[in-house]
Amino acid sequence: MKTIPALAIAVLAATPALALAQQKTDPGQREFMSNCAVCHGVTGKGDGPYAGIEIRVPDITTLAKRNGGVFPFAAVYQTIDGTQVPKAHGTRDMPIWGQDYKVKAAEYYLDVPYDPDAFVRARILALTEYIYRLQAK
Predict the structure, then answer these.
(1) By residue range, what is the domain housing residue 63?
(2) Domain for residue 5, yes or no?
(3) What is this structure's pTM?
(4) Rounded to whole angstroms, what are the CA distances from 69 to 62, 107, 119, 130?
(5) Residue 60 lies in a domain
(6) If you write DSSP's letter for every residue of the chain in order, what string do you get?
(7) Model confidence pLDDT, tens digit, residues 1-50
(8) 56, part of any domain
(9) Distance between CA atoms of residues 36 and 48, nearest Å
(10) How many domains is the chain partitioned into structurally?
(11) Which of 2, 24, 31, 133 is most buried, judged by most C-beta within 10 A?
């Protein structure tokens, strides 16, 4: 009879750990919500709080549709990274996140050896993949 209360206590003690284990982290979504949603909106349709204040913010849920049904992964990556040069008569209104990520990495990994390029690539790849998942079906 002593095993039933002990078992009940063990199950109750393990419940918070199980709840934490079930929460999945989505780095791409976290990146989008913290850096992109302010302009592009939570759903990516270009309706964030900053949209229209000074710049026109595109609907990024139609990138694949506007590209013949193929998601332009490399172009999106390069736009986020800052390596995509705007058209001759356009401006670059979007922040260059690649440089910002390098600065954040230097602050985060202050005394630890790390590869800043790998850090930046991982964040941009996660974000690009999340934008891919936002595409209209």
Answers:
(1) 26-133
(2) no
(3) 0.71
(4) 9, 40, 30, 17
(5) yes
(6) --HHHHHHHHHHHHHHHHHHHHPPP-HHHHHHHHHTHHHH-TTSSS-STTTTTSSPPP-GGGTTGGGTT---HHHHHHHHHT-SPPPTT----S--HHHHHHHHHHHHTTTS---HHHHHHHHHHHHHHHHHHTS--
(7) 565 555 555 555 555 555 555 678 899 999 999 989 998 999 999 999 88
(8) yes
(9) 9
(10) 1
(11) 31
